[in-house]
Amino acid sequence: MRLARALSGTVAALSSLLLVADASGAVAAGTKTVKIGLLASLSGYVASYGTDERDGALLAINEINKSNAIPGVTLQPIVLDDKGDPTAAVEAAQQAIDQGAIAILGPTTTAGTAALASIATARQVPDISFGLLPVAPHAKPPAYAYSLSIEPNDEAVGDLDAALAGKNVKTIALIYDSNAYGQSISDGIKREAAAKGIRTVASEAFKSTSTDMTPQLTAIRSAKPDAIIDVGGGTTPGLIARQMYELGMHQKLVISAVSFGIGAVKFAQIAGPNALSNVRHTAFAEEVWNTLPKADPRYAKLQAVIPAFRKAYGHDPNGYGAAAAYDAAWVLADAIKRADSVDSKKIQAALDQTKYQGTLCLAQFSPDSHSACHSDSLVVSKLAGGKLVYGD
Amino acid sequence: MPGLEVQAGCTGYGDLQVLFGVELAIRPGAVTAVLGPNGAGKSTLLNVLAGVHPFWSGSAWLDGRDVTNVAIPERVRAGITLVPQGRELFGPMTVRENLELGAFQSRLPRKRMEERIARTLDLFPDLAARLEKKVQELSGGQQQMVAIGRALMSAPAFLLIDEPSQGLGPIVVEAVLASLALLAREGMGVALAEQDGSAGLKVADQCYVMRSGSVIWSGSAERAGREGVLKELYFGGIR
Amino acid sequence: MAEVIGQLLVTGVLLGLMYGVIAVCIGIIYNATQIINFAQGEFVMIGGVAAWVLITELHAPLWLAGVAAVAIGAAMGLIIERLVINTARRFRPPLLTYIFLTFGVSIILSNLTMFAFGTNPLIFDPFLGRAPIVFEKISTSSQYALLLPLCLVLLAGLTFFFAYTRYGKSMRAAAVNEFGAKIVGIDVGVLSMMAFALSGAVSALVGFFLTPITTTSYSIGLAFTLKGFAAAITGGLGDFRGAVVGGLIIGIVESLGAGLVSSQFQDAITFLFVIVMLVVLPKGIFASMVEERDRL
After folding, report:
1. Nearest-CA distance from C171 to chain A in Å?
2. Do C176 and B150 touch (CB under 8 A)?
3. Distance between CA A200 and CA A194 in Å, rounded?
4. CA C172 vs CA A316, B128, B206, C296: distances in Å
5. How many CA atoms lie within 13 A of C38 on its CB side?
6. Do C266 and A210 touch (CB under 8 A)?
7. Fewer CB atoms inside 10 Å of the end CB: C or N, chain C?
8. What is the mean pLDDT of chain A?
């Protein structure tokens, strides 16, 4: 009996404490906690990117909260798994918004970004995706009014890929992942190549889960291109480099941005040492952070972020995803601060005026363009000593 | 007394009881005929003895040892083997393979396996030339020989054979039954379930008559023939 | 053009032989239990992962890694049979339940591997070095070429097992007539265990050879299950000769389809072909064999 009374007393005391805490949160002078959805592929075929993105975003959110970057506001992430699947991404987004999220970071895949667009618009909650906006060449309102992308788009990636391959070549062949990302980027590369007077003599697709690209490479081999551009992620770039070597193909292989989702070391291991000399990679600054020229505006930021990531998670980022998600969180914080509000509509309005120097690129949004990174976001890199280094 | 016996055997399928307290004894060195119309429970009785179907109650005894709950592999090792209705052979496999599989539980070295196959072929010389043929390519009579031969490969003390004459011509039936009589003369206990009792009775020593899951008459085969038991059975007489 | 087709055929045949071996493994379990094992590809994955642990983490010699892959594949097969299949048997569920259970097992194995080893691909060095094998204008990696003797040896070994050994024959017997097998004293429970262990071991060995070519990771299993299953039904489920031919057909169609028609629809072409095959020859290529079996 006495125990029961004691217990009920404790419960009452605790609830009043909670009430006080809640009341103080509503006062502008105190710190207000707002929820944001953080969607990433923590399982599924792109899980190696997704986990990185989650970790990158959490690192940024932690920094934002600690440094009180948004005065009076603490961000509380709701981490959800989009499983690399558009349907799961939609469900996760619904769940996050239902729990009170004022904005969403993620999901990982381009297909998921497209699937989320209608919900973001309908619920008027801004979404900064780690995937591409799927409307070519740029996603524009109204369908994508609340969808933004931190990922360099087909223009940004395609431009450099084509330029790089075009240095000494007249013809190129494309080998690309048949998913939404691969198609979008490879279309961009084709357009840029055509504009530069380079002929695309072969264009072959593969599935993200493919392990044997010999048939595609055989077809490419008979088209005799001067260089081959690969768009795709996971194990596929390494396998392509290796299988090219095994098929006796000695063309320059340009591995498009994003493709090193598993990291250069793992790439080199899969490709094998003999297959590396012809490989070039259009990289994100993050991937070559310590060989980047000091003049690069991203240099200083990366010198702080990468060691912080390493300290927090005990390993280097597997790829650019961590940097993308890190930037996305900071871009959101920047917008909330400028909006001086946690109202989703006002945050979206502020996001549309974004100009923020991130670790990936100078992120810029406008009402007309919701893709953050533009041309010259990428750098050229090659493999030296099993590592990716800046330069051709 | 040595033999394979059932005491108060009851069993059935689902809610349907098929055997009602059956008492039966199969003696070595004799052919025991189990006769009765379709649905009398003859097949079920043999299946229960072979361990293929469980008892609801009652027990089975092999030479005084309780074998009621013994699993099939051990029963085969102990000397009880079934030649089921419909033969249940391995059609796409050769006669030799079928015979070898009959000795699965005997774990014979190659030489003794060959000896045992040779002994089986002595009984069914027709099969000798067809050893490497697939069983499904043989005639019905030859298949029945393979079925019996496969059972003999485990060197059983008691052979339970269910409707061996089904689908066979009268001459072949005669030959099959003669081989059973021969086996009994060599000391084996043979239980023969038959619907058409007239042929079976000729080679039988003992006879049980079943109807509706019970044994309604038992005695020597000679007496059964003399007293016209079968006629009365099929035209409804015996109480 | 001839060299393109030649190259594609080489790839198709090597790939196809491997699908054939996996199809045979699916057939072994199907024949012993009537279950279609949708976790078959996970054995391939586990074989590769087990070998990776030994080679990369424990610096064990190659042969030991191969032995370990086989042992772990067999053990996993046994564990699945006892823990899942045999437990389910007590409730006498419909056959479909078992098939769904194997699908569940596949997801669990894949997820457990993800938790234990992460999402990154695992790889170790090719057995015979990295120099490709070149013949005229056709070339392939030495590791890929190893699939030829591996698959042939495995198929020969399985053929011997089923044709000449006591347990091999008993497995064939149980496949054509389970009741017949029971009455001669064959324990079909033991056969079920053996089938899972054997098909686990063989698939794991394939995974061990495959990892230096394709890498392995938690998610690769399903693709092998599907291709193996496609090969198995093309050849007629449970028909080993058909499974090998089915595997070769799938491998060659896949390779030619990707190289000559459209690489974007590689899998679509393959499975479209399987559907057409099933419509034309619903019982598989060697349909007559299956019909013979039905007669008795």
Report:
1. 34
2. no
3. 8
4. 54, 23, 39, 14
5. 13
6. yes
7. N
8. 83
Report the pLDDT value the prediction gives residue A166, as an integer from 0 to 100. 56
Helix (H, G, I), strand (E, B) or coil at B199: helix
Whether chains B and A touch (3+ CB pairs under 8 A) is answered by: no
- By Cβ distance, the residue of C120, C139, C266 closest to A246 is C139
Question: Using one digit for the tens of pLDDT, what is the confidence trace for A81-138?
Answer: 999 899 999 999 999 999 999 999 989 988 898 889 889 999 999 999 998 886 654 5
Per-residue tokens: A351: 């996001």
- Measure CB to CB from residue B90 to each of C166, C173, C187 and give the nearest one: C173
Interchain pair C172, B90: CB under 8 A = yes
DSSP SS3 for B54: coil
Q: Say yes or no for a CB contact (<8 Å) between C263 and A206.
A: yes
Q: Which CATH code is given to the segment(s) B4-89+156-234?
A: 3.40.50.300
Chain A: residue whose CA lies nearest to C114: A43
Enumerate the domain spans of chain C.
2-221
List, for residues C266-291, the tens digit of each pLDDT value.
778 888 888 888 888 777 766 544 44
Report domain extents, chain B.
4-89+156-234
Domains of chain A: 31-153+304-364 (3.40.50.2300), 155-288+377-390 (3.40.50.2300)
Extract the residue ranges of chain A whose pLDDT is less than 70: 1-30, 134-141, 158-167, 258-262
- In total, the C-beta contacts within 8 angstroms joining chain A to chain C are 105
The answer to whether B99 touches B153, Cβ cutoff 8 Å, is yes
How close A218 comes to chain C (CA, Å)? 6
DSSP A72: T
Q: Is B60 helix (H, G, I), strand (E, B) or coil?
A: strand
Q: Do C166 and B104 touch (CB under 8 A)?
A: yes
